[in-house]
Specification:
single chain; 401 residues; alpha+beta; Phosphorylase Kinase, domain 1; Aminoglycoside 3'-phosphotransferase, Chain: A, domain 2; 2 domains; five-stranded antiparallel beta sheet; two-stranded antiparallel sheet; 12 helices; 48% helix; globular
Amino acid sequence: MPTPEQRESEPLSSTISCAERLLGARWGQPVRLQIVEQFESAHRVLRCRVVAPSDGVPGSVVVKQLGQTDDSLLFPPRQQFLNEWASLEFISDLKLACGPQLYGGDDAAQLIVVEDLGEGPSLQDLLFGHDRAAATQALAEWSGLLGRMQEVSAPCQEAFLALQSSRGASTALSDGSADVRDFLPVLHECLQVLAVAPHSDFDEAVHAVGAAMRERSPLWTLVHFDAGPHNVQPAEHGLRMLDFEFAGLGNGLIDIVGARMAFPAAYRGRRVPAGVVEAFEERYRAERNRTIALFREEASFHAALAQACAHWALTKLWGFWKNYLRTRLAKGPSYDAREGRDPARAAYFRQMVFTYLSSFAGATQAWRVLPELRVTIEQVMEALCGYWPELEPWPLYPAFS
């Protein structure tokens, strides 16, 4: 079997020939492809036009072949490629119209052919536009899509694990799939330096959040783990999600609280108005409360949402301290301009984390839950404002401004 490095030097024709064989086997007739576009990626990713497609054969497809395999990277490309393959095979087997359908794959060539969702604007583009009604409608549709994906996939967890195993795949560690219980030593260091005295039940509450998010429960289902509007795209028959590299089993609310927490997984994140957030969460709840008794009572639903919000807040605070604030406080303002960097980048990072913390504090105050975490987070926010008095949450997306 050729290595990915050897395949990288192979002509594109060998990749296309393999894809044509897969498509021909699927539709029981010869299929010819013509490359339209090659995407910048760690892998070989091609958009191809189907030459003179017959009835039933799509007009275009996307071909993806394993490329870079540096397992020392934070997000190993091989792991992500194989996990996306298993994830797309899973949702295709379930006939879940939540992402691109998998048309075929070749183990020897480490290549998959998937549905082409087109080049239309993403949900993020809508949110950065000026059509409030369209953005609101798309968010509601996406919430329903997440609910249906989780509802259908929840009873089929063993099938997903079997597919992962068969592909040698695993879910890559990400913010969404991390365990906040592992963060306690670093969180305590952060609180100590900021002169924040945590609530007496802080550790116990963090352990409860970790258990709620990382231990199997009725909320356990297929989770995208990168569910931001940058990965949501309108397709012919409704919205679909892209990039299932991080997908895995987990607490489904991780994908839902992004709207309330300013889409922590999304590049260029912004906030969504409270009323739209509440409608987003209620649409999801309506999709899932048929099988999850916990969701039938509003207070229980909010308590479960609060655990997911706490996960994001604690995870982002941990990363903020570990990757920036610890060194910034030690080195002073010059750290933000190191190696010619633009200090605006650091300011954006600070505002991002402050947004997550304030979103969590606001939600738990309104729902009257997790006071032991809220009062500690509020002290952290106050300490950060002592260093940067101008700190405030992100603005709303332009569509809602």
